[in-house]
Design a protein that fits this description.
This protein has 4 helices and 32 strands. It is mainly beta. Helix content is about 10%, strand content about 30%. The chain has helices at about 1-55, 65, 75-80, 185-190; strands at about 215, 220-225, 240, 245-250, 260-265, 275, 285, 290-295, 300-305, 320-325, 330-335, 340-345, 350-355, 360-365, 370-375, 380-385, 390-395, 410-415, 420-425, 430-435, 440-445, 450-455, 460-465, 470-475, 490-495, 500-505, 515-520, 520-525, 535-540, 545-550, 555-560, 565-570.
Length: about 575
């Protein structure tokens, strides 16, 4: 009897060993399956970004990437003789990706990721215009931003976007950028999902010193334009201006006060994420993949190319922000590698590399006296740096965060240098006092991520552009140089006219004109005095990610996901009777 029992125990032990061996084999197979599937999804994601950068319709991430928290397969010792867990079923993506391209590399991720390049609504081939992606034909368009966008969310960005974009940094708006609590990959997906879910967040801020929110119901005067809906072929000759590959339609309901011409078309090999004039108006800086280029405004010739030889050679490195110092001696650039570089323009060398941000740099500005640099990042901080020493002077963090990511998409110094304004993905605009670093007011009015802010030249107004397709003009109240001390910032007017995300805004030096660029590939001129649209310009075959106006000449510039920057002139004309 004992002999049979020993033989039985031996068989049971042998079978248990076989079961454990099978379980170990299953565990190894499951792990190998996960690895192969991850590689597959990574390749699909790369191809998806490239397709969207070239203007193809947005493609939702595969089920594997939608699982932000994957179940881990426990080792056999912890399985208690259970089969390896199965992958959960695909779930609907709840995230959007500004935004932060095509042509010369992968589109920027983050704020413009997947957004700037073009959208399905624009139809057409690889770049959304029926044309293949290439130098003449991109962030975020990234991304991003923004796209995005992405400038870039995106857009990254949003959005803005994105701007409002969003991979390797996983830069934000992976590269996903846009600011936030989310991981870069989540931010990129947030921007790439089209920012279709433009749901305003129910923001419940923590108590902040002197921090007041303007109710979102405060819309001010609402002005609308339907110029984007007009058929150029049906517009009378006196209300349009046409070039070889561009046209302008003027508002038939208001006196025509401007004439617009295309002066130069500047071809690049990748998405043009940003444009900015030097203060003397002689040069235009453009940021694209791995390089910053400086162009002569007079001739349209490329004067120099700035590239950091010490930057990593692998992958993309989109320059998302550029800004000249007031004296024109320095150019500061912000990129996906979270670094800010201060270039000596004459020597074409780097004076300082500023580090401290944890995510992509989406926006830069110089103080009026040229002593300080302002930066905004997807890490939800605004930082002020010393140009002389390259050291951080102050860090302005967004602490009153709600359910939506509060990555910073755009920053600006007030004309007197006393205030800082920052736009963010959580649809808010925030003001800080430069000297004390104290928050002054949180401005709530947009229905989606804010991708752009700009102060009026007199400092009495603040302009914002959002993924909700609108612009808003805000009276600065007590914070303006001549504002009543009892008044907080209030919305004066809301401008509707774009058919898609507003990714960039700018004021003319006299404050009379506002320019806005959009994912609808159009640029609109607005009269700040009447809030009426003066005209609508179409000249790019992809999202207009960045706009800038010259401080000394009647020029403005546009940068686009079609791998082009353009310089335009706008001249005043007497109103016709």
């Amino acid at each position: 009897m004992r002999l049979f029992k020993d033989e039985y125990d031996q068989r049971v032990s042998s079978q248990l060993n076989e079961i454990q061996a099978v379980q170990q084999s299953l565990f190894e197979l499951e792990r190998a399956h996960h690895k192969i599937k991850q590689q597959y999804e990574d390749e699909i994601q790369r191809l998806r970004r490239e397709l969207e950068a070239r203007g193809g319709p947005p493609v939702p991430p595969g089920p594997f990437l939608q699982q932000q928290q994957q179940q881990q397969v426990p080792p056999p010792s912890q399985q208690q003789q259970q089969m390896p867990p199965q992958l959960p079923p695909p779930q609907q993506q709840q995230q959007q990706q500004p935004p932060m391209p095509m042509g010369g590399g992968m589109p920027p991720s983050g704020m413009y990721a997947g957004m700037p390049p073009g959208s399905a609504t624009h139809g057409g081939g690889l770049n959304g215009s029926g044309m293949a992606g290439g130098p003449p034909a991109p962030i975020g368009g990234e991304q991003h931003p923004g796209a995005y966008m992405g400038p870039p969310g995106a857009y990254p960005p949003s959005a803005h976007g994105q701007p409002l974009t969003p991979q390797p940094q996983a830069a934000g708006l992976g590269k996903d950028r846009k600011p936030g609590v989310m991981t870069p990959t989540q931010q990129q997906q947030q921007q790439m999902q089209g920012m279709v879910q433009q749901m305003p967040s129910r923001h419940t801020p923590t108590q902040m010193s002197r921090n007041v929110s303007v109710p979102s119901s405060n819309k001010g005067v609402v002005a609308s334009s339907q110029l984007a809906d007009l058929d150029p072929d049906q517009v009378p000759a006196n209300l349009k201006r046409e070039g070889v590959d561009w046209f302008v339609i003027f508002n038939p309901k208001t006196p025509r006060l401007l004439n617009i011409e295309n002066i130069h078309t500047l071809d690049h090999t990748s998405v043009v994420c940003c444009v900015k004039f030097s203060h003397d108006g002689k040069y235009l800086a453009t940021g694209c993949n791995r390089t910053t280029q400086i162009w002569s405004v007079a001739t349209g010739n490329k004067e120099c190319v700035l590239a950091d030889d010490n930057a990593p050679k692998n992958g993309d490195l989109y320059i998302r922000a550029v800004c000249f110092s007031p004296d024109g001696k320095y150019l500061v650039t912000g990129a996906e590698d979270k670094q800010i570089r201060i270039w000596d323009v004459a020597r074409r060398t780097i004076r300082h590399v500023l580090t401290g941000h944890d995510q992509d740099i989406y926006s830069l500005d110089f103080s009026p006296d040229g002593s300080m640099i302002l930066s905004g990042s997807g890490d939800r901080t605004v930082r002020i740096w010393s140009l002389e020493t390259g050291k951080e002077i102050s860090k302005l963090s967004i602490e009153d965060m709600g359910p939506k990511d509060a990555g910073v998409t755009s920053v600006a110094f007030s004309p007197n240098g006393k205030l800082v304004a920052a736009a963010s993905l959580d649809k808010m605009i925030r003001l800080w006092d430069v000297t004390s670093g104290q928050p002054l007011q949180r401005i709530d009015g947009h229905k989606d991520s804010v991708y752009a802010v700009a102060f009026s030249p007199d400092g009495q107004s603040l302009l914002s552009g959002s993924l909700d397709k609108s612009l808003k003009l805000w009276d600065m109240g007590r914070y303006g140089p001549q504002g009543p001390q009892r008044d907080i910032v209030q919305c004066r007017s809301t401008l509707h006219g774009h058919k898609d995300f507003v990714l960039s805004v700018a004021y003319s030096p006299d404050g009379n004109w506002i320019v806005s660029g959009s994912k609808d590939r159009g640029v609109q001129f607005w009269d700040s005095r009447t809030q009426h649209t003066q005209c609508m310009l179409q000249g790019h075959k992809n999202s207009v990610i960045s706009v800038a106006m010259s401080a000394t000449h009647s020029y403005f510039a546009t940068g686009s996901g079609d791998c082009r920057a353009r310089i335009w002139s706008y001249e005043g004309i007497p109103p016709s009777n």
